[in-house]
Automatic annotation (TrEMBL):
EC number(s) per entry: 4.1.1.37
Pathway the protein takes part in: Porphyrin-containing compound metabolism; protoporphyrin-IX biosynthesis; coproporphyrinogen-III from 5-aminolevulinate: step 4/4
Enzyme class: lyase
One cellular component term from this protein's GO annotations in UniProt: cytosol
Name assigned to this protein: uroporphyrinogen decarboxylase
PANTHER family in UniProt: METHYLTETRAHYDROFOLATE:HOMOCYSTEINE METHYLTRANSFERASE RELATED, UROPORPHYRINOGEN DECARBOXYLASE
Species this chain originates from: hydrothermal vent metagenome
Domain named Uroporphyrinogen decarboxylase (URO-D): residues: 20-29, 139-155
Keywords per UniProt: Decarboxylase, Lyase, Porphyrin biosynthesis
GO MF annotations in UniProt: uroporphyrinogen decarboxylase activity
GO-annotated biological processes: protoporphyrinogen IX biosynthetic process from glutamate
Family classification: Belongs to the uroporphyrinogen decarboxylase family.
Length: 346
């Protein structure tokens, strides 16, 4: 079936008005329907691996608010678990990965059979694709190699990234081996999501901004380029969105050197810089999640600022980070309506 997807048009470089809108973490704890479903689903990982439930969670915000895209409900660390590292989520703590991976324990990881462990995720994507309107885009995703590696080395939230940084400085060859394993599985993972029905995929590099310039080139730019090339060699027509959160002025380098189709801007990116980046590729962003939480006139101004500054080019309206769990759902509806009802400045 031919589908008219404004979101895909935009991330491939076309301007559409009103611009498409979706939000990072648009599915989740701020929604009462999610909390109700979550209470009977077991652990967070149980929810991720149950396709019918994960698909329902993915679709919930689209059903309620009418976003232009549904993003897969999963977690970036499923790749780490598929490689053989134990993973659980502790309340109030977050992800716990055991054992911590370093140069000595790297041999415990295994690519053999890793993709098979991710097959429930492909089923989720397929259910989402059949469960939303044809005009609604479906977005798949993975964590960027550097960001996933920081969690694997720390055994949980990476804090000051001491483990990953010391490993990368002290034994870059074995750290590169870990990065390459993540890349290889992530290529298969994204291709599997595309084949299941994803119209675009996104690479989340949540910790791209913690590296020095030379290390950014080594562990963000080069691995992302390799990951994108691997996906494009097999599925050349599917757009890939990158999110090098916190990269600041290095956003330029990321766009120029990775082969990314579109880039998500974090909250700190000034509008003037966003316009300059938009001359190179489509941009997504970058409303402050706290403006969304505040709602009212604050939120209206934040939406209008993005539309006025970036609306003349290819733009996907989004946040600069994920929806805060304490956000009033009515504010999300306000944001989506504000975008969809905006007048084209021409």
């Amino acid at each position: 079936m031919d589908r008219s997807l404004r979101f895909v048009d935009v991330v491939k470089g076309q301007r559409r008005w009103p611009p498409p809108v979706w939000l990072m973490r648009q599915a989740g704890r701020y929604l009462p329907e999610y909390r109700k479903l979550r209470s009977g689903a077991g652990s967070f990982l149980d929810l991720c691996y149950q396709p019918k439930l994960a698909a329902e969670v993915t679709i919930q915000p689209v059903r309620r608010f009418g976003m232009d895209a549904a993003i897969l409900f999963a977690d970036i660390l499923l790749v780490a678990e598929a490689l053989g590292q134990g993973l659980r989520f502790d309340e109030g703590v977050g992800p716990i990965l055991e054992p911590k991976i370093d140069a000595h324990s790297l041999s415990q990881l295994d690519l053999a059979g890793a993709e098979d462990r991710l097959k429930p995720i492909y089923e989720t994507v397929s259910l989402v694709r059949s469960g939303v309107n044809p005009e609604t885009a479906v977005i798949g995703f993975c964590g960027a190699p550097w960001t996933v590696a920081t969690y694997m080395a720390a055994g949980g939230p990476p804090g000051e990234h001491i483990e990953a940084k010391l490993w990368a400085y002290g034994d870059p060859r074995s750290f590169a081996d870990l990065i390459d394993m993540i890349i290889e599985l992530s290529i298969d993972y994204l291709v599997g999501q595309i084949d299941a029905g994803a119209d675009a995929v996104k690479i989340f590099d949540s910790w791209a901004g913690v590296l020095s310039e030379d290390q950014f080139d080594l562990w963000v730019v080069a691995p992302t380029k390799k990951l994108i090339a691997g996906v494009k060699s097999r599925r050349p027509n599917t757009p890939v969105i990158g999110f090098p959160r916190g990269a600041g002025v290095l956003y330029d380098r990321y766009i120029d050197r990775t082969g990314i189709d579109a880039v998500a801007l974090d909250t700190t990116i000034p509008m003037s810089f966003g316009r300059a980046l938009q001359k190179k590729c489509p941009v997504q962003g970058n409303i402050d999640p706290m403006a969304l939480r505040a709602g009212g006139k604050v939120l209206d101004r934040a939406v209008d600022t993005v539309l006025e500054n970036l609306g003349s080019g290819p733009l996907v309206v989004n946040l600069g980070h994920g929806v805060n769990k304490h956000t009033n759902p009515e504010h999300v509806g306000q944001l989506v309506r504000r975008v969809h009802q905006a007048k084209d400045p021409g």
